């Protein structure tokens, strides 16, 4: 009995000790580790449906919205909650217009949450309403967002593409993706191990946070003007490519930038990658032609190798080391001053400037003006261009380089060099980002500043260059860009296109680089047309009139007032105007009548269809004359 009683007490003590240990363990779990285990339990029960963050908006320099966000719901499923898979699959297939076999793949995945993409990603509000109305078990709608473009595909190459995962792929969207992205939110749902909802637990919604806003140096109104002129020129000339660039000469801020062909920011997959990945004003390099003469002229003036009043005789050619280099004008320009050399875009005159400078000095200025390396603009895909290695060239290459042949440059390099030539001599780094802004405010947390690269010429030389370029437009080859009261200066460009070491026959890049007002430069505008069809192959007759309109509208947008003074257009302009053949407009809709580079339109009547015209098709009209179109 004693042995039994002893064993009983031992068992009792053991049980008491075990019970106390259990109590202590339970107390420890509940009081000390309780929160940890509860969090783990919630993690096991939680199914997170991601909600896209709102990307930061993009504004122009005046605070006008260029890129915003709009609601685009996304469908997600919790497969274990779907009771009647066949019914749900068929219903979603019907609403989203996809085959049941494709939809079924999403329901067969061994995952806790499946996003139906791409079929159910960023659907329309109407589709989302139909899914909600169907009341499908295990199917959820999250309020995602996609990009919204108030101005359509304007500025497309610069803005860039945003993919279906709301990440930047190209352009500014890619460069500043980390700033624009923001933080994702989520819609939380609690389920048991079988995927069923836990009825007494309410899911949480974590609000996504917006990314920072971007403010650009671009003026959207100037951008719209540039792209309208580009579309008109593309329709008329049916050219391979068109390039446009507008900047502020004193700061090198980009006011507008575009190229053709363009692409759709939303349906970019329909276009070849080479179209949306190449921003031509900073990527494409080519021989600039006579627009480059601004650099040679500035260098010659700075080094004192000529004065504007010095005389030069142009017989129509120059002979350099036995090579005959022709002028663009048969028979040449005869006796002229060096002011008239640039005014007439005289190639032999620039050959003389280049040879007087010599190889070392000419190429020193070419490099100091920024050619042969990237400008450093804050955009992707910039090219360096190609500049001769001066140690491996002779006088012929020096001569051709002086008037824009042999070296290749990018439009951004060319315009920025011209900016330095007229702004007092300072070469600045071009930029397009004005700053970052806090969402839903106008407060900038970072603002870009003007960055001086180097001084290339003196203020005195720059003043002479400004006067010379104004005379080019008022009295010389750039007269097509003359705008009364705005003191426009500039330089024409007619550059042959080289391929495999030789120049293509009748293939040119026609361009014009205009600046205004020349006494206080506020805008520089470049327009280039690659291989235009059915036109006179001169930049002064094709590109200059387009830049004239671009400058006139841009200065109005910038509220730059007209002024008196400056170089007045020569009276001979009215005698020297070209004569053109009038096209046939009878039978066309009045809305299709747009820009014409050589003459203007006056529409009489309120009908929709053109029934008569004066002058008639095939007749001749003087440049800038009016064709009257009658609708009734």
Describe the structure.
- With 632 residues, this protein is α+β, with helices and mostly antiparallel strands.
- It has four domains: 2-46; 47-215, Penicillin-binding protein 2a (Domain 2) (Alpha-Beta Complex); 220-263 and 277-439 and 448-575, DD-peptidase/beta-lactamase superfamily (Beta-lactamase, 3-Layer(aba) Sandwich); 577-630, Trypsin Inhibitor V, Chain A (2-Layer Sandwich).
- Helices cover 33% and strands 22% of the residues.
- The protein is built from 19 helices and 28 strands.
- It has a six-stranded mixed β-sheet, with no helix packed on it. It has a five-stranded antiparallel β-sheet with strand order 12-11-23-22-21, sandwiched between helices. The chain has a three-stranded antiparallel β-sheet with strand order 1-8-9.
- A hairpin with a 5-residue loop joins strand 2 and strand 3.
- It is elongated, with a radius of gyration of 35 Å.
- The chain starts with a helix and ends with a strand.
- Residues 36-46 have low confidence and may be disordered.
Topology:
Elements: H1 2-32, H2 34-45, E1 46-51, E2 58-59, E3 65-71, E4 74-77, H3 85-96, H4 100-107, E5 114-115, H5 125-134, E6 139-142, E7 145-148, H6 156-159, H7 171-175, H8 177-180, E8 185-190, E9 205-206, E10 213-216, H9 220-237, E11 241-247, E12 254-260, H10 273-276, H11 280-283, H12 293-303, E13 311-314, E14 317-320, E15 323-326, E16 334-337, H13 338-343, H14 347-368, H15 395-402, H16 411-422, E17 426-428, E18 433-437, E19 444-447, E20 452-455, H17 459-475, E21 489-499, E22 502-516, E23 523-530, H18 539-557, H19 573-576, E24 579-581, E25 600-604, E26 612-614, E27 620-622, E28 626-630
Parallel strand pairs: 2-10, 25-28
Antiparallel strand pairs: 1-8, 2-3, 3-7, 4-5, 4-6, 8-9, 10-18, 11-12, 11-23, 13-16, 14-15, 17-20, 18-19, 21-22, 22-23, 24-27, 26-28
């Amino acid at each position: 009995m004693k042995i039994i009683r002893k064993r009983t007490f031992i068992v009792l003590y053991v049980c008491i000790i075990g019970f106390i240990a259990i109590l202590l363990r339970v107390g420890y779990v509940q009081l000390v580790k309780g929160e940890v285990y509860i969090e783990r339990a919630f993690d096991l029960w939680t199914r997170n449906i991601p909600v896209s963050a709102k990307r930061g908006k993009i504004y122009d320099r005046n605070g006008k919205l260029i890129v915003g966000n709009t609601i685009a719901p996304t469908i997600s499923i919790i497969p274990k909650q779907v009771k009647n898979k066949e019914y749900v699959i068929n219903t979603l297939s019907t609403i989203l217009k996809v085959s049941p076999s494709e939809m079924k793949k999403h329901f067969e995945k061994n995952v806790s949450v499946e996003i139906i993409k791409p079929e159910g990603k960023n659907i329309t509000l109407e589709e989302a309403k139909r899914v909600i109305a169907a009341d499908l078990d295990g199917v959820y709608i999250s309020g995602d967002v996609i990009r919204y473009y108030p101005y359509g595909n304007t500025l497309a190459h610069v803005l860039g593409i945003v993919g279906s995962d709301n990440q930047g792929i190209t352009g500014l969207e890619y460069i500043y993706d980390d700033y624009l992205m923001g933080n994702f939110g989520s819609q939380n749902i609690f389920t048991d191990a079988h995927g069923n909802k836990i009825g007494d637990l309410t899911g949480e919604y974590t609000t996504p946070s917006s990314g920072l806003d971007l403010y650009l140096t671009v003026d959207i109104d100037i951008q719209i003007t540039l792209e309208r002129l580009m579309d008109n020129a593309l329709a008329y000339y049916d050219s391979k490519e068109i390039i446009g660039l507008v900047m502020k000469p004193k700061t090198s801020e980009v006011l507008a930038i575009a190229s053709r062909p363009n692409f759709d920011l939303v349906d970019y997959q329909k276009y070849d990658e080479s179209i949306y990945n190449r921003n031509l004003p900073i990527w494409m390099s080519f021989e600039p032609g006579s627009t480059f003469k601004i650099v040679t002229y500035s260098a010659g003036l700075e080094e004192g190798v000529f004065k504007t009043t010095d005389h030069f005789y142009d017989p129509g050619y120059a002979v350099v080391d036995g090579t005959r280099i022709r002028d663009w004008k048969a028979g040449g320009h005869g006796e002229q001053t060096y002011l008239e050399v640039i005014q007439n875009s005289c190639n032999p005159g620039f050959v003389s400037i280049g040879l007087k400078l010599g190889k070392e000095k000419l190429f020193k200025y070419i490099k100091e003006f920024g050619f042969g390396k990237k400008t450093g603009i804050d955009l992707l895909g910039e090219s360096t261009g190609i500049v001769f290695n001066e140690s491996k060239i002779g006088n012929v290459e020096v001569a051709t380089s002086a008037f824009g042949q042999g070296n290749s440059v990018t439009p951004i390099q060319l315009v920025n060099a011209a900016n330095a030539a007229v702004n007092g001599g300072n070469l600045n780094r071009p930029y397009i980002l004005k700053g970052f802004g806090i969402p839903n405010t106008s407060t900038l947390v970072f603002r870009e500043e003007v960055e001086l690269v180097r001084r290339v010429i003196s203020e005195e030389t720059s003043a002479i260059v400004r006067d010379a370029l104004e005379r080019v437009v008022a009295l010389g080859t750039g007269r097509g860009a003359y705008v009364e009261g705005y003191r426009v200066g500039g330089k024409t460009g007619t550059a042959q296109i080289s391929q495999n070491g030789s120049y293509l026959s009748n293939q040119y890049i026609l361009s014009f680089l205009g600046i205004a007002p020349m006494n206080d430069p506020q805008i520089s505008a470049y327009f280039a047309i690659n291989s235009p069809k059915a036109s006179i192959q001169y930049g002064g007759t094709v590109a200059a009139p387009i830049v004239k309109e671009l400058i006139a509208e841009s200065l109005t947008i910038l509220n730059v007032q007209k002024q008196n003074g400056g170089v007045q257009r020569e009276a001979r302009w009215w005698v020297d105007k070209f004569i053109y053949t009038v096209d046939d407009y009878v039978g066309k809709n009045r809305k299709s009548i747009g820009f014409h580079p050589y003459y203007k339109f006056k529409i009489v009547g309120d009908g929709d269809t053109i029934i008569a015209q004066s002058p008639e098709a095939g007749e001749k009209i003087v440049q800038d004359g009016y064709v009257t179109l009658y609708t009734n």
